[in-house]
């Protein structure tokens, strides 16, 4: 069988379709042959199977009206596919009762919900505050030690210049503070890089989780 | 391949292939075959369905003195593809977990 014979036979078996559907299918397979190249003609014919069963396959697809469409269709609001009806019906009823129960519960517990929401909001804000506070504390310790150390050294030099021996003590303490402050920069930077971002991300994830769930569920 | 491919997965793969570059039936078939054992007669109904669902649209372009029908993903098709990708990630995670493929948090 040649390509042209194959296509002619396919066309004959597609007689029950509308002219538009039939031409679309024939055009597709004609192009398919051309793109595969003349040297692959026999392979394509073999691969496609006999024209009659290919025609049946095409016709059954068209008559089903895309019943094999994806089951994800209902999940997207803007998507008005006509498929997936078979297995959509039962879960929908369950969904409806679920929604009804949720609404009833919401009405019954509404006096509780507002304060509860307040508590949760407060908790979340508190957690954020805690995190920021901790961050500020660590930063404050480092900056304070370095600034205090410099100040103490300057003061010590001043005291020494005016002939007071206490200046040595002040200067010594200042140097120690400065050293500890500079040393603490290393763990502080490490905290900034390794601990705060994951903590912050974790917190944000925790907050966004209930909203996210709703979106994915179907 | 021992795992059958569902219609939804096939839709997702076709959308993904066409979204990378407008392309034509034969080429889509070849690309799909890199991932799965698939008959050459499988694709046409899928393309037709995606077109009908307004996820794909076509245009004809001349190639070596003949017409070639190219497929292009619509905005709706893109939205659907994103949905499929999300679903796939969830699905993959669950299967991986049961299969014991690495740790997932």
Tally the helices of chain B: 4
Could you give the order of strands across the largest sheet of chain B? 1-3-2
Rg on CA atoms of chain A, Å: 38 Å
Strand count of chain B = 3
Number of helical elements of chain A:
7
What's the shape of chain B?
Answer: globular
User: If classified by CATH, what would the architecture of chain B be?
Assistant: Orthogonal Bundle
Please summarize what this structure is.
Chain A is mainly alpha-helical. Chain A has helices at residues 3-13, 19-36, 41-48, 51-64, 89-108, 110-161, 166-216.
Give the topology, please.
The complex is a heterodimer of chains A (about 220) and B (about 100).
Chain A: H1 3-13, H2 19-36, H3 41-48, H4 51-64, H5 89-108, H6 110-161, H7 166-216
Helix pairs in contact in A: 1-2, 1-4, 6-7
Chain B: H1 7-20, E1 23-24, H2 25-35, H3 43-52, E2 56-63, E3 66-73, H4 75-99
What does this structure look like?
The complex is a heterodimer of chains A (218) and B (105). Chain A is elongated, with a radius of gyration of 38 Å. The longest helix of chain A is centred in the middle third of the chain and has 52 residues, at 110-161. By secondary structure, chain A is an all-alpha fold. Chain A has two domains: 3-69, no CATH class; 117-216. Chain A has helices at residues 3-13, 19-36, 41-48, 51-64, 89-108, 110-161, 166-216. Chain A starts with a helix and ends with a helix. The model of chain A is unreliable at 66-90 and 214-218 (pLDDT under 50). Chain A has seven helices and no strands. Chain B is α+β, with helices and mostly antiparallel strands and 105 residues long. Chain B has a single domain (7-99), classed as Arc Repressor Mutant, subunit A (Orthogonal Bundle), CATH 1.10.10.10. In chain B, strands 1-3-2 form a three-stranded antiparallel sheet. In chain B, helix 1 (7-20) packs across helix 4 (75-99). Chain B is globular, with a radius of gyration of 16 Å. In chain B, 30% of the residues are buried. The mean pLDDT of chain B is 90. The chains are: A mainly alpha (218), B alpha+beta (105). The interface between A and B is medium-sized, with 33 and 31 residues.
